[in-house]
């Protein structure tokens, strides 16, 4: 048994004993201990972007079963249909973003990690994404001006995040830090910034601001950026992948995840469930290769 696990067991035992003196249950004592001491074996990942990170509607029955309980999701909004409450952890059964979204890269990212990591390690994801949005939606200096130009359908999504998706991401990330340790950031965005040569610099700024807001060390929290639908799938925005490829040049802790061969829908913008599964596995494989 490792020192960290033994120490955690002692903390739980102490919390339970102390709780008994006040008539509290062991469950409540354990919850109090969790809040006081984040579990170093609970690895949390932030995910953000536009519709492909949301998960384009389409969840197959097989994706709703077989989810390892070690893989959890933190609800960034209420999911009334699923009984999920904002700010609480649940088994990571899709959808992970909002009630109306579908399978996304974060799904099989997390499933792959729990398959590959030691049994003591749990994985959590927090997904705050906005369909159709430009990267400016997550820039603290630009989001308000950008959101003011949004179409009504996007405004409704923004409203689900309390009117400020970026702040909701930061606030929920702080909630996640009470239980676990943020180990990385996943991004899938770019279709709405086609031909925007400044995209890598904009992403780098957002990443650095997130690290500063959450007290994170870049050397320990890599950014994984997925390509949009590839040219081999006749991707409508495939040219953006040339811009995404330049991200590591301006952000050394960023790595690009290839979408080559990931099956796309007929709209040539979104992936099929099979495409999301493969892309999610690649996010996980990319992360594991960095260790």
- Specify the CATH homologous superfamily of the largest domain: SGNH hydrolase
Query: Structural class, please?
Result: alpha/beta
- Largest β sheet strand count, sense and barrel closure: 7 strands, mixed
- Which descriptor suits the 3D outline? globular
CATH architecture of the largest domain: 3-Layer(aba) Sandwich
Q: Name the helix and strand elements from N-terminus to C-terminus, one letter apiece.
A: HHEHEEHEHHHEHEHHEH
The structural domain count equals 2
Q: Going across the biggest sheet, name each strand in turn.
A: 3-2-4-1-5-6-7
Q: From the 3D structure, determine the CATH topology of the largest domain.
A: Rossmann fold
Overall pLDDT level: 91
Question: Low-confidence runs (pLDDT<50, min 5 residues)?
Answer: 1-34
Rg of Cα set: 19 Å
């Amino acid at each position: 048994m490792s020192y960290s696990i033994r120490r955690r067991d002692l903390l739980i035992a102490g919390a339970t004993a102390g709780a008994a003196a006040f008539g509290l249950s062991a469950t409540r004592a354990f919850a109090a201990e969790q809040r006081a001491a984040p579990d170093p074996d609970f690895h949390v990942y932030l995910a953000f972007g536009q519709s492909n990170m949301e998960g384009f509607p389409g969840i197959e029955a097989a994706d709703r079963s077989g989810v390892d309980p070690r893989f959890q999701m933190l609800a960034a909004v209420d999911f009334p249909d699923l009984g999920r409450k904002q700010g609480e952890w649940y088994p990571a059964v899709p959808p992970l973003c909002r009630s109306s979204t579908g399978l996304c890269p974060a799904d099989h990212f997390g499933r792959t990690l729990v398959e590959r990591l030691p049994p003591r390690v749990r994985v959590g994801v927090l997904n705050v994404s906005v369909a159709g949005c430009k990267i400016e939606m997550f820039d603290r200096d630009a989001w308000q001006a950008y959101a003011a130009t949004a179409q009504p359908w996007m405004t409704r999504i923004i409203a689900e995040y309390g009117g400020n998706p970026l702040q909701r991401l930061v606030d929920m990330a702080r909630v996640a830090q009470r239980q676990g340790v943020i180990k990385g950031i996943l991004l899938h965005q770019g279709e709405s910034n086609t031909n925007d040569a400044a995209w890598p610099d904009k992403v780098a700024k957002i990443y650095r601001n997130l690290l500063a807001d959450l007290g994170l060390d870049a050397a320990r929290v890599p950014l994984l950026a997925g390509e949009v639908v590839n040219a081999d799938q006749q991707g409508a925005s495939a040219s953006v992948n040339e811009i995404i490829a330049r991200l590591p040049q301006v952000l050394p802790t960023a790595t690009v995840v290839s979408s080559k061969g990931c099956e796309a829908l007929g709209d040539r913008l979104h992936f099929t469930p099979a495409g999301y599964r493969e892309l999610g596995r690649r996010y996980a494989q990319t992360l594991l290769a960095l260790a």
